[in-house]
Amino acid sequence: MAKVPLKLGEMIDGEALRGKLASIADDCGDAAGHAARAAVLALLRDELAAGRARAETMLMSDGGGTACAARLSHVMDEIIRALQDFVIQHVYTSRNPSSAERMAIVAVGGYGRGTLAPGSDIDLLFLLPYKQTPWGEQVTEYVLYVLWDLGLKVGHATRNVDECVRLSRTDITIRTAVLEARYICGDTGLFEELLERFDHELVRHSGSEFVQAKLAERDERHRKAGESRYLVEPNVKDGKGGLRDLHTLFWIGKYYYRVRNGEELVGRGVFTRKEYLLFRKAEDFLWAVRCHMHFHAGKAEERLHFDIQRDIADRLGYTSHPGLSAVERFMKHYFLVAKDVGDLTRIFCAALEEEQAKHVPGINRIFQTFSRRRRKVAGTSDFIVDNHRINVADPEVFERDPVNLLRLFWFADKHGLEYHPEALKLLRRSLKLIDRNLRRDAEANRLFLDVMTSDRNPELNLRRMNEAGVLSKLIPDFGKIVAMMQFNMYHHYTVDEHLLRCIGVLSEIEHGDDERIHPLAHSLMPGLRPQREVLYTAVLLHDIAKGRPEDHSEAGARIARRMCPHMGFSAAETETIAWLVENHLVMSMTAQTRDLNDRKTIEDFAQVVQSVERLKLLLVLTVCDIRGVGPGVWNGWKGQLLRTLYYETELLLTGGFSEIPRVKRAAHAREQLAAELSGWSEDARARYVRLHYENYLLTVDLADQIRHAEFVREADASGKRLATMVKTYGFEAVTEITVLAPDHPRLLSVIAGACAAAGANIVDALVFTTADGRALDTILINREFDRDEDERRRAERVGKLIEEALSGKSWLPEIIEKRRKKRGSRAFRITPQAEIRNTLSNRFSVIEVSGLDRPGLLSEITGALSDLSLDIASAHITTFGEKVIDTFYVTDLTGQKIENPTRQAAIRERLTATLEGATPSKPSRTSQAAAAE
């Protein structure tokens, strides 16, 4: 990496600045007065702004992140030096200073390293020889107040040398700050005394203690920021693989190895020259990203939110390539750098561990040697167990037999061993041995399959293979999706991390862990045991073709057909894996976006699946895929939809699907309902049963029909025209709200608007009308509370708002407008689409719309459908992060499908405009209230 010239002389002229400050003192006469202070503040504010502007311009020109941070630090140094000179020469002058009236201003913390981001804190130590004096207090206060008035965040401490050393003994944060102390101005003797005493009294005797404290601190920081370094909105400063991890390495190296800069670690054998250059390159990139983020946001923004990722990619000069947008290419580079930081950390810790082992004194060293004794790994002479971790027996292990690159992971898995850092270091330096011959080697492939399908912890060992670079070399197509981010709010991890987490979920299912999450998948796994290698391989490969211009499912199937024969799979097994990869989204999309009560949905899905065996495999793959997306994506409602689709399809594939005509099935359902209403009078029972049409009787479970009957009966008895009923479902993680109201074309639109105003997310809706002109609509919303009592109270509040909206008491557009857009949604661009299909149902036209989500969108869409004179039978609402895919089963007002091409075009045009927000379909006060008339 070429080093970017710092050009510090171009940033700020310190001598000229001091001259201007002296002129202010001369012009004002009273340097301590308000006029002089205001002039000083104005001058320094201009100098700071000009320095930052020059730093940003140079960053945009040369791209040097570390150079930009050094330039900003230099600007601050010169401002503080000039300010201190002004204070002690013109404001608080001391004619005959005593030995106590001395001070050094020292940069500590990040500023002490000589690097600053535009929004970084300025950490200062005002170093004194003894106790504070009135003169020292005045100088310190003047400097600090000016810096604060400049809008800077200043962390500061005023201590003498004794206090610095004493506090450093007990506070690791203070010790780290002093470790990075850098002289800015003032008494140099004080600063040198601090460094000498700090090194002699602390650093020399406490290396191991400091190392343990900083590594524990790092682990806690990772826990708070998110354990994975592949979160799609990473924290550039404190996240795993971020700048703080590099700083931790530098702190430990500086403290333990007693070096003053990172390059000296090469001489100490910690890093090779290549690894040190990788350290520098990673640091430079992360500093560039962080500085761009601060300049762009105008503040200390540390998390790469979706809102700014596209802008930062533009500032860094990334462009789009086929299959990957500019922002996705930028983020892939970011995650590759984060991976490099992880590699450097492991290398560093390995060297540190060996160094510490050399310096264990006396009897402790004997015990450590005993506890670390080496032994051979059973079944091989190429690997040993070193301190409970697998290590290589000699440096030629991989050169001698490249298959050992896989055996390392196989033996580690078989014996439950962690990996010795030295073995991983040698492995990374031997990756060139993985070539076409090794990829086709039968034993190597057998070993890989054993690791991937292990009964122990396949996710852990595959992750180690990925971190070491073996997976990318062994499966080149996998290498293309390593660190690849998908720019959306649905996927929480990079593609490779998602695939590894899916393997972990599959292993959990097989072990019976979390059976309550999806009991059907768990119950099917024992029967799939003979095909577990097929299933594990399909799970690993299902997203392997992401980031290509073509459909990733089809491209992934081609990759599977090419790879699997070399992995030892038969032609039939290869075809099954390829089919699973090609169709891995079909079950999820069918379950979430189609009406599972419509027989045509089940018939079409069964036509794709064709066999019960494939159905079982696809169900388990689908569960793994959804659960591996990220926290909060899976819920019980999705599980229930998958179970329903599975059972209905299994029934059809095994010949159990009912062939009884629809009219006869409806008549039988009517008789069943009448029989269950045993406590009703004969007239009331007959009158109620006649209210419902065939679709209601064939769609709604008998238990729910009985519940609805009591609900309607109670509403009628109390004379209510509007009524709502709530039922919570804990396992399915949804809550049902049933609405009884006079039928109206915009009824569903008003209900959806009320739910949006209440912050309730609708996932499904069934719409029924009765023979007496009323609507009995069932709305399912995502559950928010764990306790049924809390959830019921919340749902009742939603129901109350629905009733108020339908009666015209609440004005929905105003309430919806108050709800802020979800964070990040404005960063995304989704082309709105509206499709009308008549082949997906025998009785309904199916309208599918997709676009960017926003509060109240469902209300606008359903309102538009009503304006278009369409009757909605059911609505299926699916949200993938910022994207919605909503499906409506509709007819015209005569109960027929929408066949006319001109009318279809008009519907598409209106819905597309609604999705774009061009013609919002908000109900007027009159139409909203009319829904209750």
From TrEMBL:
Name of the gene this protein is made from: glnD
Q: Give the top-rank taxon of the lineage listed in the UniProt record for this protein.
A: Bacteria
Q: Does the keyword section mention Glycosyltransferase?
A: no
Q: Which key words tag this protein in UniProt? A: Hydrolase, Magnesium, Multifunctional enzyme, Nucleotidyltransferase, Repeat, Transferase
E.C. code:
2.7.7.59, 3.1.4.-
Its needed co-factors are: Mg(2+)
What reaction does this catalyse?
[protein-PII]-L-tyrosine + UTP = [protein-PII]-uridylyl-L-tyrosine + diphosphate; [protein-PII]-uridylyl-L-tyrosine + H2O = [protein-PII]-L-tyrosine + UMP + H(+)
Q: Where is the ACT domain?
A: 736-818, 846-928
UniProt GO molecular function: [protein-PII] uridylyltransferase activity; phosphoric diester hydrolase activity
GO terms for biological process?
Answer: regulation of nitrogen utilization
Q: Where is this region: Uridylyltransferase?
A: 1-378
* Coiled-coil positions: none
Entry keyword Glycosyltransferase: no
Instruction: Cite the SMART domains for this sequence.
Output: HDc
Name the PANTHER family on file. BIFUNCTIONAL URIDYLYLTRANSFERASE/URIDYLYL-REMOVING ENZYME, BIFUNCTIONAL URIDYLYLTRANSFERASE_URIDYLYL-REMOVING ENZYME
* UniProt name for this protein: Bifunctional uridylyltransferase/uridylyl-removing enzyme
Domain comment, as recorded: Has four distinct domains: an N-terminal nucleotidyltransferase (NT) domain responsible for UTase activity, a central HD domain that encodes UR activity, and two C-terminal ACT domains that seem to have a role in glutamine sensing.
**Record-stated family:** Belongs to the GlnD family.
Activity regulation (record text): Uridylyltransferase (UTase) activity is inhibited by glutamine, while glutamine activates uridylyl-removing (UR) activity.
Q: Which part of the chain is the HD domain?
A: 495-618
Matches recorded under InterPro entries: ACT-like_dom_sf, ACT_dom, HD/PDEase_dom, HD_domain, NT_sf, PII_UdlTrfase/GS_AdlTrfase, Polymerase_NTP_transf_dom, UTase/UR
Say what the protein does. Answer: Modifies, by uridylylation and deuridylylation, the PII regulatory proteins (GlnB and homologs), in response to the nitrogen status of the cell that GlnD senses through the glutamine level. Under low glutamine levels, catalyzes the conversion of the PII proteins and UTP to PII-UMP and PPi, while under higher glutamine levels, GlnD hydrolyzes PII-UMP to PII and UMP (deuridylylation). Thus, controls uridylylation state and activity of the PII proteins, and plays an important role in the regulation of nitrogen metabolism.
